[in-house]
Amino acid sequence: MEKREFKDRVYQGITQLTKALANSHRVEIVELLAQGEKTVEHIAAETGVSVANASQHLQVLKGVQLLATRRQGNHIFYRLANDTVFAAWQSLRTLGLLQLAEVAQLVHDFRDERHTLERLSIEELVERQLNEPVVLLDVRPAEEYRLGHIPQALSMPLTELAEHARALPTGQLVVAYCRGPFCVFADEAVTYLRGLGYPAVCLSEGYPDWKQRGLPVAILN
Amino acid sequence: MEKREFKDRVYQGITQLTKALANSHRVEIVELLAQGEKTVEHIAAETGVSVANASQHLQVLKGVQLLATRRQGNHIFYRLANDTVFAAWQSLRTLGLLQLAEVAQLVHDFRDERHTLERLSIEELVERQLNEPVVLLDVRPAEEYRLGHIPQALSMPLTELAEHARALPTGQLVVAYCRGPFCVFADEAVTYLRGLGYPAVCLSEGYPDWKQRGLPVAILN
DNA sequence: CATCTATTCAATAAGTTTATTGAATAGATG
DNA sequence: CATCTATTCAATAAACTTATTGAATAGATG
């Protein structure tokens, strides 16, 4: 094989993979599956596309081995093939936030509307937890909490926050986290809790980012 | 702004960026520019596309801020906008080598043809250098050596190897490196040197990967 | 100031990707 | 075994991407 043919084939192979990630619905699916496995129906509903269309996108991702599946009863559960897939999405996300002023601006503005102020990094949270007790809230849907969460976090889906907020311990910092930097569950929770007078802040990244750092995670069976 | 509109805009922004990287010529350009700045003409020649076509691809990359330019005389030099761009390409490359059996196979086979055996990782090289002297060869074109190389490396472009090989010190391990894991300059150099009886091995990654790790680099003016 | 040169632009045709339909399938459940 | 349900398949039209031309531009050089 000639040098040029070799290069063309290698770059085309990697490009196939990149093309699979070069669609807004598909990256939304990758980010969603970073929370844990989901059915086609669930993915379609959550991303706002038709089931047939979601299925097609899922097959594009599966075609380049980014996803794996398992069947349970009538449902097929899709999941990320491995941690490298999330790592690649993470670095595209970082690049986007850094390079595209519009994206950074969009995130900033949308958050500002909701009057959310400080955000704690994962490293800051780890350090704080060593020195003082912190109330950690996982505000994602209960099913995602079940599939994996930060140890010691309480499951507090947004839908149940109003009901349980008054029962939270006072006098401790409350830290809420959700799916990732583009998820606004945590912002909404923090806005609500601050309204009740709690000292609440958001975690700047989500559960998948915690997991990706190799920090310990808790799973319910 | 509604939640869905926000998400759509964020994901579409990042997708624009990913689309810019979802073309085999364009990733080859990114990898080439990781060696240092180049003119349009040079990029066209090296990647085997027409100048007009190279210019178009360069503008796609520049349009999403992945590249920056400077003019010198009649020439326009393109370069990577910053280190995050290489980091993103690096993680797509890693994903490709891991997920796509064909790509890994292709790289393995092409190398095997050239009878190249062992490869040293960057970490192994650093450790070895602490314990014993190593002859380090930068086999990229002289201009790329000038723009940045591993300290203590000798510039030994493939074209000049035959002429200078006999002058290399004997009794020391010879390590050759080039542009990256898809570059075969180093393999060719090692094959040649082993033919002459030198104990020679390749570095498994290239100069940009060394630089990206934050290790020291040398630049000539 | 005329000329030269490297780069970009514009138009085009061929090829790819996408969402939408509605039908087909494969496995579970009564 | 018939029925149901979640998922996939196939066909299509519209929207994008790409390489190829050849012309235009902007700046440098004599």
Automatic annotation (TrEMBL), chains A, B:
Domain Rhodanese: 130-219
Keyword Transcription: yes
PROSITE patterns listed in its UniProt record: HTH_ARSR_2 (PS50987), RHODANESE_3 (PS50206)
Keyword entries, A-Z: DNA-binding, Transcription, Transcription regulation
Keyword Repeat assigned: no
Gene3D superfamilies: Rhodanese-like domain, Winged helix-like DNA-binding domain superfamily/Winged helix DNA-binding domain
HTH arsR-type domain: residues covered: 6-100
CDD domains: HTH_ARSR, RHOD
NCBIfam families tied to this protein: HTH_metalloreg
Name of the featured protein: Metalloregulator ArsR/SmtB family transcription factor
Organism of provenance: Hymenobacter koreensis
